């Protein structure tokens, strides 16, 4: 089974952890790493400088579509980032754990 990483940004830690917990509980993600970031972006013609939280969802190709749909459904932003990172390789013990955690 192929591993997949999905990344998304969120407005605060509370929202990020709530969504991460829900998706791990549903076994759509084996793990979610959360870190605080500073983002600079254009929104409605203005440059924004905001603190956000980056969530890195670790899952499998089997769960990818459902996970993306759930993130979209739960996300508070009008235009959420939901980006997939293709993983070419992953150490076998971690991959085994990831698969076992998402079935």
Automatic annotation (TrEMBL):
GO terms for molecular function: copper ion binding. One of its GO terms (biological process) is response to metal ion. It comes from the Archaea. InterPro entries: CutA_tolerance (IPR053426), Ion_tolerance_CutA (IPR004323), N-reg_PII-like_a/b (IPR011322), N-reg_PII/ATP_PRibTrfase_C (IPR015867). Coiled coil: none annotated. Belongs to the CutA family. PANTHER family: DIVALENT CATION TOLERANCE CUTA-RELATED (PTHR23419), FI09726P (PTHR23419:SF8). This is Cation tolerance protein CutA. The lineage of its organism: Archaea, Nitrososphaerota.
């Amino acid at each position: 089974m192929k591993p997949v990483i999905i990344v998304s940004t969120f407005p605060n830690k509370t929202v990020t952890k709530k969504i991460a917990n829900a998706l791990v509980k549903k076994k759509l993600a084996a793990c979610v790493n959360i870190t605080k970031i500073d983002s600079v972006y254009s929104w409605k013609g203005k440059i924004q400088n905001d603190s956000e939280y980056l969530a890195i969802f670790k899952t499998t190709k089997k769960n990818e579509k459902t996970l993306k749909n759930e993130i979209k459904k739960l996300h508070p932003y009008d235009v959420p980032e939901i980006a997939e990172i293709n993983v070419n390789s992953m150490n076998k013990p971690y991959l085994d754990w990831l698969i076992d955690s998402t079935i």
